[in-house]
Description:
This protein is of the alpha+beta class. It has one domain. The protein has helices spanning 5-15, 81-99, and strands spanning 25-32, 39-46, 52-56, 60-63, 76-79. The protein has a three-stranded antiparallel sheet, with helices on one face. The protein is elongated, with a radius of gyration of 18 Å. The mean pLDDT is 85.
Amino acid sequence: MTFKSDQKYRYIKRNYPEIDFMIGGKTEFFLKCDFCSRPLFGYVVVSKNNIGYESYTGGNFHHIDGDKSNDSDENIQFLCEECHKKFHEWGSIRKWLKKIKKSVKDLPDYNLKPMIKF
């Protein structure tokens, strides 16, 4: 399930109280990726009835537990597209390891330092 504009608006409003949204207009802002802290431009257009109906966030809302119906604040991370992709790649690797009854420590390069800096 993809976050709809009003869900994004409500999430940002709850978690970033310093953003002063203009009711009946467009509010631009910068959010940070919850993992790498990269600044991401976004905007929300809010109706006169206080409903977000158009938005762009420059990132993705990630469900930590993988359950896309669980939109609780504790289960949502705001991630840049690069981090979001890596989180899903890592999830696929973990599922594969579990399927073949192995762990991360069984990987041949387990003791190597990461080549990618976050």
